[in-house]
Design brief:
By secondary structure, this protein is an alpha/beta fold. The chain has two domains: about 260 residues, Aldolase class I (TIM Barrel, Alpha-Beta Barrel), CATH 3.20.20.70; about 35 residues, no CATH class. The protein is built from twelve helices and eight strands. Strands 1-2-3-4-5-6-7-8 form an eight-stranded parallel barrel, surrounded by six helices. Helix 4 links the parallel strand 4 and strand 5. The longest helix is centred in the middle third of the chain and has 17 residues.
């Protein structure tokens, strides 16, 4: 498959998808103040962003509201306090976790300001994910499937999963670098694989990258060049662990005049700079090590929480688990 588009002209099929509150919520258990969430919403509208993932729609009957903030549950009333009727071009999305979502709690689209339901699932959870996809579609929502931890999967296993998903009504199939362990060459091959299957079933491909090895931006561009149409970003890279592809980098890279950089810079000035003094995310040596060794970043998270700078010991421990 040849490259799609050039670095000079814009591609009309490319969409920018903001995950700041949802992926950023993994840093602070979704304890964002309404002012911050409204700030992200207003920024996305002004910047011309296409989708905003406002949080998760997990069930408060499964996860405790005492432990998690309201953006882990995304009640309709809470969303409407931020977006009103959302009479804008920005579409609102929520994410469903397998085993933490009660599908009966999802209102029909005609009763909700939400436009899209995203489903995150590991390989062994795909049958359950398909149930959620079909339920959300029957209720009138757009859907995506984010297949997680594919860097640990065998090729034939991934091929089988992609084939099954191609038969579902899901709109977007996501190429996800869960551990931030992929290099552009690997993303290139995966994007071609995903795009071929998606094209044959009239679906789009999205990309969701993590920044463990400072490659989230490069990998997002590489996936786009070889077929991905929906690009996940967060403002200033705010997200779990090493964070995500920064919105400001992608908006600055894309040549589509609909996207505006200035509103994003203003949000960073007013909200992200103060937040950096309270929350910890972004590239660091512990995250780099888990990325290089294709391991879940849980050990890096603990090292950061404990202010552990014994990087050599961390490396030896990770090597022993290989």
């Amino acid at each position: 498959m040849d490259k799609i588009g050039t670095m000079v002209m814009s591609r009309k099929d490319v969409k920018v998808f903001d995950c700041t509150i949802r992926d950023g919520g993994l840093v602070n258990n979704f304890q964002f103040e309404d002012e911050f969430v409204k700030g992200v919403y207003d920024t996305c509208v002004k910047a011309g962003v296409d989708y905003m993932e406002i949080g998760k729609n997990n069930s408060p009957t499964i996860q405790s509201p005492k432990e998690f903030g309201k953006w882990n549950f995304c009640l309709e009333s809470d969303i409407r306090k931020i977006v009103g009727k959302n009479n804008t071009n920005l579409k609102i999305a929520v994410m469903s976790d397998i085993g933490r979502t009660v599908k009966e709690e999802l209102k029909p689209k005609k009763e909700s300001v939400v436009d899209m339901v995203r489903i995150a699932a590991y390989m062994h959870q795909i049958p359950s994910a398909i149930e959620l996809i079909e339920d959300a579609h029957k209720k009138g929502y757009e859907t995506t499937i984010n297949i997680m931890a594919i860097s640990k999967a065998m090729n034939d296993e991934l091929d089988e999963v992609l084939d099954e998903l191609s038969k579902t009504p899901v709109n977007i199939i996501y190429l996800v670098d869960s551990f931030g362990s992929f290099h552009p060459e690997q993303i290139n091959k995966l994007a071609k694989k995903y795009t071929k299957i998606a094209k044959n079933s009239n679906k789009l491909v999205g990309v969701h990258a993590h920044n463990n090895m400072q490659l989230a931006y490069a990998n997002t561009i590489e996936a786009m060049m070889y077929g991905a149409s929906v690009l996940d970003v967060t403002i200033s890279g705010l997200g779990r662990g090493a964070g995500n592809c920064p919105m400001e980098l992608i908006v600055g890279f894309l040549k589509n005049p609909k996207y505006k950089l200035m509103p994003i810079l203003k949000f960073i000035e007013h909200y992200i700079v103060p937040l950096e003094k309270k929350l910890d995310w972004g590239y660091s040596v512990p995250y780099m090590l888990t990325g290089q060794l294709n391991e879940h970043p849980r050990t890096a998270m603990k090292a950061r929480d404990d202010a552990d700078i014994n990087f050599c010991d961390q490396y030896r421990t990770l090597l022993d688990t290989q």
